[in-house]
Amino acid sequence: MGDGNGWLVWVGVALALGAVEAATVDLVFIMLAGGALGGAVASAFGAGFAIQVVVAVVVSGMLLGVVRPLAKKRLTTAPHAPMGVKGYAGRPATVIEEVTDHSGRVSIGGETWTARVLDHQVARPGDQVTVLRIEGATAVVETAPASPQDEVLPPPGT
Questions:
Q1: In this structure, is residue 19 part of a structural domain?
Q2: Residues 58 and 20 in one domain
Q3: Which membrane topology term applies here (predicted)?
């Protein structure tokens, strides 16, 4: 590759690796293509073939070791994250209109939903509730259990 057009060979290798990446979509071959482009730059600056190979290997190694893990982390969604209406389960909601076992309204992440509670509970406007599940267009919610601070204790000595 000493004729001055060696960079074209490296670019061709990069394009071929890019095509393989398009078929595999695993972010390995695109990193190798980046290394090949590093070799092309080295060739364009007149480096010898051995230096071009070293640059290609070093750049590929850095891309595979640093960029690929970050890119995979950014591009992959958590497989355990529920989507759609299942994604509402466990989310907090604020009561807008009194919620009984038959009717009511809550706000879940800024969206207004019809709602109902279980076991004849009642949730008042402003109360925080937890979404158990979505049934059709209705959020089934539960009121927060009473904390020990919420209990009214009798005065001492009675």
A1: yes
A2: yes
A3: Multi-pass membrane protein
Token pair 């490296």 in the structure block, residue: 10
Pick 4 or 141 by higher pLDDT. Answer: 141
Number of domains comprising the chain: 2
- Distance, first Cα to last Cα, the chain: 98
String of DSSP letters for 99-158: B-SS--EEEETTEEEEEEESTT--B-TT-EEEEEEEETTEEEEEEPPPPGGGS-PPPTT-
Per the model's pLDDT, the better-predicted residue between 25 and 50 turns out to be 50
Task: Give the global pTM.
Answer: 0.50
Phi and psi, residue 135, nearest 5°: -120, 105
Cβ atoms of 138 and 108 within 8 Å: the answer is no
Phi-psi group of 109: left, alpha or beta (phi > 0 → left; psi -120 to 50 → alpha; rest → beta): left
Residues 28 and 63 in one domain: yes
96 with 60, same domain: the answer is no
CATH number for position 105: 2.40.50.140
C-alpha span between 94 and 107 (Å, rounded): 5
The whole-angstrom distance between residue 135's C-alpha and the CA centroid of its chain comes to 26
Which domain-ending residue is among 75, 106, 121? Answer: 75
